[in-house]
Amino acid sequence: MADKILKKLNIKVWRQNNAADKGRFETYTIDNISGGSSFLEMLDILNNKLILEDKDPIAFDHDCREGICGTCSLFINGRAHGPDEDITTCQLHMRKFKEGETITIEPWRAASFPVIKDLVVDRTAFEKILQAGGFISVRTGGVPDANSIPIPYEDVEESMDAASCIGCGACVAACKNSSAMLFVAAKVSHLGKLPQGRVEAKQRARSMVSKMDELGFGGCTNTRACEVECPKNISITHIARLNREYLTARLSE
Amino acid sequence: MSILDSKIPQGPLAEKWSRHKTAIKVVSPANKRKLEIIVVGTGLGGASAAASLAELGYNVKAFCYQDSPRRAHSIAAQGGINAAKNYQNDNDSVYRLFIDTIKGGDYRSREGNVYRLAEVSNNIIDQCVAQGVPFGREYGGLLANRSFGGALVSRTFYARGQTGQQLLLGAYHALNRQIAAGSIEMYTRHEMLDVVIIDGKARGIITRDLVSGKIKRFGAHAVVVASGGYGNVFFLSTNAMGSNGSAAWQCYKKGAWFSNPCFVQIHPTCIPVHGDQQSKLTLMSESLRNDGRVWVPKDKAVAEKLRKGEIGPGDISEEERDFYLERRYPSYGNLVPRDVASRAAKERCDAGYGVNAEGKAVYLDFKYSIERLGKNVIEARYGNLFQMYEKITDVDPYKEPMMIYPAIHYSMGGTWVDYNLMTTIPGLYSIGEANFSDHGANRLGASALMQGLADGYFVLPYTIGDYLASEIMVPKTDTKAPEFEAAEKAVTQRIEKLFNIKGTKPVDYFYKKLGQIMWDYVGMSRNAEGLTKAIKLIKEVREEFWKDVKITGEPNNLNPELEKAGRVADFFDIGELMARDALDRNESCGGHFRDESVTDDGEAKRDDENFTYVSCWEWKGEGLEPALHKEELVFENVKLTQRSYK
Lengths: 253, 646
Ligand SMILES: Cc1cc2nc3c(=O)[nH]c(=O)nc-3n(C[C@H](O)[C@H](O)[C@H](O)COP(=O)(O)OP(=O)(O)OC[C@H]3O[C@@H](n4cnc5c(N)ncnc54)[C@H](O)[C@@H]3O)c2cc1C
Ligand code: SF4
Ligand code: FES
Description:
CATH architecture of the largest domain in chain A: Orthogonal Bundle
Distance between the termini of chain A: 63 Å
Number of helices of chain B: 18
Number of helices of chain A: 9
Shape of chain A: elongated
Structural class of chain A: alpha+beta
Bound molecules: flavin-adenine dinucleotide, iron/sulfur cluster, FE2/S2 (inorganic) cluster
CATH topology of the largest domain in chain A: Fumarate Reductase Iron-sulfur Protein, Chain B, domain 2
CATH class of one domain in chain B: Alpha Beta
Oligomer: heterodimer
């Protein structure tokens, strides 16, 4: 099966040299892109062209290129991770675009994710939230046998659903309030659904939520935009659990 | 030669590690607080080590090039992690895991190391469960297992098709806990560009802050390199785009010997290459071979029709299908080790039976298990892999067989280390995929995660004490020392040099050329003529690169192109050393296949008389031939036999 070739595309992309720079859109054209190429491969080709024209290539974040590391983070044609369902930017393929189309590419826009350069943003805020309590406090060694605590199948599956979050930040980028609730809720469910994680569950919810607020992420008003754009299908039912966990934590204070 | 003392403890195999632990020195808590350790890389190896060392009380500085430790390449591991728990009651044991790993590695690894690995494997599973890793479970609530290639027991623990992700998150959580506690300083978006040696000991590193472009110095009492593998030397591989060999290579150039560089693993089940715009290859986990059957048509004319798109796989009847793995290897069937499965696929495709337009693909078919188990079961086991496949290829693998082909995946070779995981430079350690230690000439599936975590959680935190115990009187490293000065200068000059070439071609141009040479001559099968040619060709491309590469943007800003240029520059050197090593090793073993060394029926033929050694290469200077040293492998417990999976 030969892939169809997109003979010409216009790429309208956000250029910003550093955090202090104001930034602007620039438009480039690019020819002969295979529909079987990934979106990032298209950007590689464009970048090699820019280099030959003595221009600075477009900086964008990526690493695994298979939808698991959560590094890639592009806002394409008004959608976090672009026009396809349940995927990250690196899994988006050019067959989703039309000949001659103008494709608009922006970085994640959120006050808590400042732009570093072009399409690369600083997601250190996510690190800080997890450092505030997104873990189970065990040391290396001295733990019980792995089969000493049976865990109901359904609970582990639900924990695993939540644990699939890749920390990409699309939920924040898609949300008009730039809320990080889905991200926080995913971690709270991942650990809270397991008996090992129950011990610190309340404390965990409380510390992570207050860190999130402190870092300037907005509140959740249930627009569900996060769930729609989340590449890993993290469900907003986890937000309901987080709210319960958080409330009982506050009540027991 | 004393420098190659592997420090394998004396005594019976099963007692070596416990005896060693009692014999090595321990540092007091008060002294640990005075000691600093640098950990380069925070994948499974580095994150588990950094967290465990910090828990012990050492001051740790950890580095990674991504914006978060959670994004290390380990995150991409799919299938699972091995342990000798024997939860399935199928007669598994530490000894059996040891034997499988030694045999799987084609008898080119150390008995002592491998036994220790098998021994601590069970602690890893306990540790991960305590951290909240949601491993797959049975309905009764106990842990589930699956089978992997190269083993007849079911000992692989998994978290859907995202085992690496979940294990890394576990280690990352432990790391975060220590960062919050102030015992780890984490430097993300920092790339190590050199290691600093003072009076023969590792004392620090030079890094580039990838955001500001600033070159910085960091001092410590010991340096641990956990920077992953060098598979990206092939340009197209299943590794993450940023995976590189540079950190290990800088260690090599500072005097750490490099072992078995030619041992790289080709994974049999990857999505085939299409066209020429591709940037990387995607793995389809080996666990799929549990439920998928590999086949090509029996008839060349039928294959020809497939290639032209005239017929589809559904048009081919059962009798016309050649399940060549089941045919050639009846006892292991589709679960033969990776090297065997890869070569068998290549053999069929080279013989004209390939099934995609390029003639470089075979089928991996789930029809049979869907019929047997139902779609739901298959979906629960591999749902995310099937989705990944469909997104890339636009083909639904529930309906049509997957097309797969081998691709470069893992590097067994790496920095030489002794039993303590120390390199030939005192105070410099190497763990995880970056070292050469436990997998010999071929790694079994689900054993890399095991090794990374074994090194980081349970081996290094003990063994590093043996060295640091004699460093307690040593003051903090002075980063104003002339050695730091010189190292920083060299790093800065190299960056200036790259910028000043102002040539006519982007880095990728040279990188793709290198990748092609490697795949053609240092790939799945190798011979003296091709390897000699590869060495010559690599030299030519390297020369061209240093004359004609073009890098734009600024040195003092985020500049991914500059980062790539530095890594590719090192890949030329690594590629050349791989070819040299492959040329020296005139035998076929594990992932290394020499056309000159085959049995009558075309299987790999090992030559134990001449090659039962670890090759150890020593850097002799720019433009000079490296020196080869040999660590003879001693087998006291295992009898060497030709591997057979028939
Ligand atoms: C697609 C895929 C699937 C796999 N599946 C399995 C599986 O199912 N089971 C299994 O056992 N194994 C599997 N493997 C192999 C396994 O994932 C790796 O071998 C293992 O995760 C390597 O871990 P590591 O910690 O050594 O290195 P990595 O995870 O590669 O981490 C390297 C770290 O070093 C850092 N780094 C690198 N260079 C520098 C530098 N110069 N300066 C600063 N930091 C640097 C990186 O930022 C990163 O933090 C798979 C591999 C791939 C590619
Ligand atoms: S919740 Fe979804 S969108 Fe948000 S960070 Fe996690 S994976 Fe990304
Ligand atoms: S690059 Fe890793 S998820 Fe896209």
